[in-house]
Design goal:
By secondary structure, this protein is of the alpha+beta class. It has a single domain, classed as Nucleoside Triphosphate Pyrophosphohydrolase. 23% of the residues lie in helices and 31% in strands. The chain is built from 4 helices and 11 strands, in the order E-E-E-E-E-E-H-H-E-E-H-E-E-E-H. A hairpin with a 5-residue loop joins strand 3 and strand 4.
Length: 178
């Protein structure tokens, strides 16, 4: 089985958040499968709107829909599914292979979707993760530091920090790819 993760990025098309990019800020803890809190790795780091690992028998598109429903709610997943079907408002932006810390080859599929103000209102972040949805301007990309740059330093509330591979995607989006 191919090891892969999917990431969903979005750009708002209208309303007061037009042109902004919604991302999640990781919390310090989340509720585990056993119902008890567990410490989350990389607290405070900015991530795509949705991200997750593929499971046995899924392809990237099915993984994206499942993860979207889990992390952003069924209402938003239904909107995403509709955009996937029309094809013009949703597309695969990039695919990058890398080796994880255990030496496994992993493929990261990044998808980008244009969303309306009405679409945003359907997002219901997974309560167990305690993440926060924040909106970045395209020019904020210049202020984002990587987790490697912050190695050993505490990430504070106002810091903009991303994993290096996420920052490269963010730069592509900010550069007007969509």
């Amino acid at each position: 089985m191919e090891n892969y993760i999917v990431s969903l990025w979005a750009v708002v098309t209208d309303g007061p958040k037009a042109g902004l990019i919604p991302v999640q800020r990781r919390a310090t803890w989340e509720t585990g499968e056993d119902g008890f809190p567990k410490i989350q790795s990389h607290p405070g780091v900015l991530q795509p709107l949705v991200a997750g690992k593929g499971e046995q028998g899924e392809g990237p598109a099915k993984t994206l829909l499942r993860e979207t429903e889990e992390e952003a709610g069924k209402g938003f997943a239904d909107i995403l599914h509709g955009k996937m079907e029309c094809g013009r408002k949703f597309y695969r932006f990039s695919q990058k292979e890398y080796t994880d810390k255990n030496g496994n080859s992993v493929c990261n599929y990044n998808f980008v979707v244009k969303v309306s103000q009405d679409d945003l209102e359907k997002i219901k972040l997974h309560a167990g993760a305690e993440s926060a949805l924040i909106f970045l301007k395209k020019e904020d990309v210049k202020k984002i530091r990587t987790t490697k740059e912050m190695d050993g330093k505490e990430i504070k509330e106002g810091d903009l920090v991303m994993f290096p591979d996420h920052l490269s995607v963010m730069k592509g989006i900010a550069g007007g790819v969509i």
